[in-house]
Amino acid sequence: MSTVSRVAQRVDEVPFLERGDASLLLVLPGLFMFSTFMLFPILYLVGVSFTNAKPSNLFAGDGIASILTFGEATFVGLENYVTILTDPAFWNSFGITWLFVATSVALKIALSLGIALVVTGERVRGKRFMRSIIIVPMGLPAIFTITVWRGIFSSAEFGLANQVLAEFGFSSIAWMSQRWMAFLAYNVTEAWLAYPFMVIITVSALQNVSDELHEAAMVDGAGYVARFLHVTLPSIKRPVLFASILTAAASFQQFLIPFVFNEGGPARANELLILYAYREAFSFSQYGQGAAISLVAVVIIGAFMWLNVKRGRLADGVNEA
Amino acid sequence: MSLLRSVGRSVKEDTKEALMVPVDLVRGVGYTVDEVRNGRMSPVEPVKTLAITLGALAIVLTLLFPLYWILMSALSGSGGSIYSSGGLRLLPTDVSLQPFVWVVGDLIIPAYAISLNIPLTDLAVVFNTPQVTFLDASAHGVESPSGFKQFFVNSMTVAIPTVLIAMSLIVPGAYALSRREFIGREKILFGYVLLTQVGGGLGIAMLIGLYTVFVQLGFNDSKLALSVYYAATAVPFNTWLLKTYMDGIPVSYEEAAIVDGAPPWRVVTEVILPLSKAGLATVFIFTFLTGWTEFVVAQTLLGTENYTLPVGLYSLISEYSIPWARFSAFALTFAAPLGLVYLFAQRYIEGGLSFGGVEG
């Protein structure tokens, strides 16, 4: 009798498990590791958010036991939540985050729909080649792309954005030290980071639009614009909506762009929510409040997941096979 | 290696096709000219097609211009200025590879003296290996080269354990999820997909918790702890990816093996694993990239001497004394190989880099 079947027999003896459930053992290591590094920090975050944790007291105790007591930090109840919810800086960050989600998603959809229409256009030659090089940015590390775009929006002599402005006769702009210029720079960079993903999904949706519908519309005398509005758009609505929810979640969680560009500046005006939590903890030593802000973000990310389950077809693949 | 052979075959076909492009183009143009001359086609048509294609090409090139600009900045001594008194300047002036020399630094294998004592005598044979110089930075006018090599070694010591740990967690899990029926299977899959697609920033959101735990356990600044963390975060996406790949292997192969009397483990090692080579290669690339490109957690946890490449890249931008050309060269040396691997894998690993359940 092999070990495998002995294990299977043991499993059989547990009341709610069956013999075949022994295969669960193959999945459990991965699941366990993931939970250790994902769920445990979240539970810990919940704990920290109820204390007055600062580096001085949080890291004070020694030994494994001090993890469970949060060092020497003391329990303060909901104080951190009251503090952040009455702090105008929090609401500023909250507002700018949602504004960023709105503007960047609009920009991403417009840009990628435009590109997708171009690289599937009837008269365009060399479409396959264009499609394969247009998605190159997807293969580049985010930190590379973002540092390069920081260079583009730099006020130094090499800054590409200012060079282009100068070419058209405008005066140069100090991108990173003006709030809305920095915000614009964030949006452009986010759009460039995310367009390959959106283009891939939109192109495959466009290729599924039935030719018969187009031909029928042409027979009825519909022009290009009318066909786009009444045939193409309704057919690609679902996949594009699905991609938009995903990319909205990505925009909401954007951290690297403001962090690398100017640390959410000028004067903390553009700190997106996750960066705000990060800076609150690591730059201003308010671990308790940082944790509370992070949890607000986690709850909203959870809402995005729920939205995905309801509106997207995310889970369809699970029941196949 | 059948995978390598099939990749080789598709590379060959692609090369042949690419070489045929100009020939086809000339033929197509000739055909169109004939048609127009004979009056079978209105001359407006080809002009329209040409104009629209050129427009599309212009859009594509504009989009990718930042990449061209960074390459030009790295190559030109002037440091990426496209603006000059004579209008736009799109080709690098005074091309120099010196920034790349600064990035790579010295490539010198130092001389060693190896001495062998001959037994039972007092004699010893001493070999002096010569010093092998591939690249001497100071000969190219570079005084203090960048820390690229150190960062590279650090990144390797993070990425390799990440791959090993992640693969040993992902492969059994993906197999079980694809081929076995057990309690909670659908719930686990569902959770994996959900976390994969939406929860990219969860890692940063819980960074405060992670950092605190790591510091209290004394794990901060430990590259091994970092790779264990990376491996854990790579589990959901890659398990899902490999599971979808394995779903595509026909069950009849396994049945045939079972009929021939193969025990379960041999079905796995001789049917499933060899047939999912492309999937395994993809998961390998993705898990490696997790360790190679992650920035935020590495930046928070690691100390200066353990910086990985992304953190090293970031640390350059706060040093204002670094010329832009050198920065560009550093960034390109870091990212260009990854971009090429991505393009290559995208094209040649069949069904590999598709988006699991996302497409459509």
From TrEMBL, chain A:
InterPro entries: ABC_transporter_permease, MetI-like, MetI-like_sf. It is a multi-pass membrane protein. GO terms for biological process: transmembrane transport. SUPFAM superfamilies: MalF N-terminal region-like, MetI-like. Residues 94-308 form the ABC transmembrane type-1 domain. GO terms for cellular component: plasma membrane. The chain crosses the membrane at residues 24-46, 98-120, 132-152, 183-204, 240-261, 287-307. Keywords: Cell membrane, Membrane, Transmembrane, Transmembrane helix, Transport. It comes from the Archaea. It is found in: Cell membrane. Its main location: membrane. PANTHER family: ABC TRANSPORTER PERMEASE PROTEIN, INNER MEMBRANE ABC TRANSPORTER PERMEASE PROTEIN YCJO. Belongs to the binding-protein-dependent transport system permease family. This is Carbohydrate ABC transporter membrane protein 1, CUT1 family. The lineage of its organism: Archaea, Methanobacteriati, Methanobacteriota, Stenosarchaea group, Halobacteria.
From TrEMBL, chain B:
Its main location: membrane. Residues 152-345 form the ABC transmembrane type-1 domain. One of its GO terms (cellular component) is plasma membrane. The keyword Cell division does not apply. InterPro entries: BP-dep_ABC_trans_perm, MetI-like, MetI-like_sf. It is found in: Cell membrane. This is Carbohydrate ABC transporter membrane protein 2, CUT1 family (TC 3.A.1.1.-).
